[in-house]
Specification:
23 strands; alpha+beta; 20 helices; 7-stranded mixed sheet; 619 residues
């Protein structure tokens, strides 16, 4: 990636590109934080990390074998911490592969009762050669791990892991160390160990700063006594989708010259005219710019402005702060403790090289995507909707804190379906949702057609039968759909609940539901045998038709699969262990068609005998 920072709207970086390993390195481990996420984007991320980067998310989502192998390779090497109750849901059944994310996705709550709002990635890479020091990357984002294609700002820092502690990283290190203690459910020992291990290496990283900046500082609000907020300056520019009067007034007073503000129309409309008059110019994203995001997208996925930045002129310098925090009291309150957990990264450079507030936000810079904000009255309907959203948000928080859990047990066959598993939603105590008119739930793999009404049962503290389902559909992710009692407003979200009685063979059932024939088996085998750092081979293996010819590569290449197996055996890097695990998971009974050819099973016996004993273990 180019080692240069820019707020020019023509400079664009795709999410997957930001996760790709530097040349000569391969992905090793990562910890990410996000306010919200959707399952599809979370499924696509491991593919970008371990296999190949695609032009857009939908290209990856169309390749279930790549999703399966990406999740398998990354399962023990990625932890994603998100705000409890802010996993997005949908009414249609979601992929069974989402269950493979259960170890990776960890829900947390801000210690001061606000939102857990940071959006960062801390990635560790190891040399492809196997020798030498590792590298790390810190991504400080303004966007969540969702399909939202709004205008955002990100800072990407690459650095080397050294032997000396780098004090500059302490705020992020402290955040990572704190994460396992913020979880709403007990965190797995593996995820905790991974998070602390990545934090330990981050503590010793020296960053290469992007041109033309010459200094860096990092800050985290909401987990300690230190609170970051902008300092006094000659002039300030603020980009913030969300804002409130008190914070805007305080920011304006920090700037000797009238500052510049870029926000969202609905948020600015709720601010007083006197507050906005403190700014020289108040702008919003032009409607045309909102649809020019560089990727094809459905109109409903375009949300306009999501970037957050504070640009200040201090002496001869321009100070640029990016991150997750908006211009709100929850993120920037002028006191020792703030409600939200937020991350900020500040880079400083000479104004002559970086540019002034006007050159960055003016007509020659980001300003060419903006238009003046035109004030209008806040409609009664808009105010009522905001009030309804606040009530539903309170109900969401109550559900996340209610101690709900799941229990599953084998159940007899129903109709023509094979014997399945019955799942019960268990209530630890009565939960009264006074402002909610209706509450429905369903496992995300089943969809709205299998929903259950739980409002009365939750109020009585009673368990709810969620029905009998195939083993591959078992999931701890449950969708909740709430309706406000005083309006038509609804809220749809997912929560990950503790699940008792999950059989060990569930992952095997998921594999068998994806790898259903010989072509799929050989394509998946190609993925398993593709080396880390060889994205072309992985992308080719994942494509439909890549398994044609079975024992050859397909696509006109006659090099036999046998040679790939021999190379993997000689490398001793665990790829054959993964093949053994696949063969075991695809074991079938007499009623099922075997996707593994008998001749391959016979060949595999020879490789199994040749594999080192220490490598023949479950992953």
């Amino acid at each position: 990636m180019a080692n240069r920072a820019s707020l020019d709207p023509e400079t664009r970086v795709l999410y997957g590109e930001s996760l790709a390993a530097p040349s000569g390195y391969v992905f090793d481990a990562a910890v990410a934080t996000t306010y919200s996420l959707d399952f599809e984007t979370a499924l696509a991320a491991p593919v970008s990390l371990a296999l190949f980067a695609a032009e857009n998310r939908d290209e990856i989502l169309g390749q279930p074998l790549a999703l399966l192998e990406g999740a398998e390779r990354i399962a023990d090497r990625l932890a994603v911490y998100c705000d409890a109750g802010h996993i997005q849901a949908q009414t249609q059944p979601q992929s069974r592969l989402c269950s493979l994310l259960e170890k990776m996705i960890i829900e947390v709550a801000a210690p001061q009762g606000g939102a857990f709002h940071p959006k960062i990635w801390v990635l560790r890479f190891r040399p492809q050669s196997g020798t030498g020091a590792g590298k790390m990357r810190l991504l400080v984002l303004s966007r969540n791990l969702t399909r939202d294609r709004s205008w955002d700002i990100s800072l990407c820092l690459d650095g080397d892991i050294t032997r000396r502690v780098a004090p500059i990283n302490k705020p992020i290190v402290d955040l990572l160390k704190r994460l396992p203690r913020l979880t709403v459910q007990p965190v797995a020992d593996e995820a905790k160990a991974l998070t602390l291990d990545v934090a330990g290496d981050l503590n010793r990283v020296v960053w290469t700063l992007p041109e033309p900046f010459d200094s860096l500082s990092l800050a985290v609000n909401g987990i300690g006594s230190d609170v970051w907020s902008p300092a006094t300056c000659a002039r300030m520019g603020v980009i913030s989708p969300f804002c409130d009067d008190a914070t805007l007034i305080r920011l304006a007073r920090l700037s000797r010259e009238k500052p510049v503000l870029v926000g969202r129309s609905d948020e600015l409309a709720a601010c007083s005219a006197d507050t906005l008059a403190l700014f020289e110019r108040v702008s919003v994203l032009d409607d045309m710019a909102a649809s020019e995001d560089g990727e094809e997208a459905e109109p409903e996925s375009l949300q306009g402005l999501h970037a957050k930045a504070f640009i200040q002129e201090v002496g001869w310098d321009t100070v640029l702060t990016v991150g997750s925090g908006n211009a709100t009291q929850a993120a920037l309150a002028d006191r020792k403790v703030v409600n939200n957990v937020e991350v900020f990264a500040t880079i400083t450079g000479k104004t002559s090289k970086v540019g002034s507030v006007e050159s960055i936000l003016g007509a020659q810079g980001f300003g060419r995507l903006l238009c003046p904000f035109v004030a209008g009255e806040v409609s009664t309907d808009a105010a009522a909707m905001k009030a309804a959203e606040r009530r539903l948000e309170d109900a969401r928080r109550a559900i996340c804190k209610a101690g709900l859990s799941l229990r599953c047990e084998r159940a007899p066959a129903e109709g023509e379906e094979a014997a399945g598993w019955r799942v019960e939603l268990r209530a630890a105590r009565p939960l009264v949702l006074a402002s909610v008119a209706s509450a429905f739930v369903w496992p995300i793999t089943r969809g709205e057609g299998h929903r259950r009404d739980v409002l009365a049962a939750l109020a009585a503290g009673q368990d709810v039968d969620l029905g009998v389902m195939p083993l591959a559909d078992l999931t701890r992710f449950i969708a909740f759909q709430l309706a406000d009692a005083a309006s038509d407003t609804r809220l749809l979200f997912s929560v990950g609940l503790p699940m008792e009685g999950v059989p060990a063979e569930r992952h095997s059932a998921i594999f068998r539901s994806i790898i259903t024939n010989r072509d799929a088996f050989f394509r998946y085998l190609r993925l398993l045998l593709s080396e880390l750092g060889d994205p072309f081979a992985a992308a080719l293996a994942a494509q439909a038709g890549a398994g044609e010819g079975a024992w050859g590569r397909g696509g006109g290449d006659d090099v036999p699969l046998l040679e790939d197996l021999v190379r993997a055996l000689c490398a001793g890097d665990g790829r054959l262990t993964a093949v053994e695990r696949l063969i075991t998971r695809l074991a079938v009974d007499d009623a099922q068609a075997d996707p593994v050819p008998a001749e391959f099973r016979a060949l595999w016996e020879a490789f199994r005998a040749a594999m080192p004993v220490e490598a023949d273990h479950a992953h």
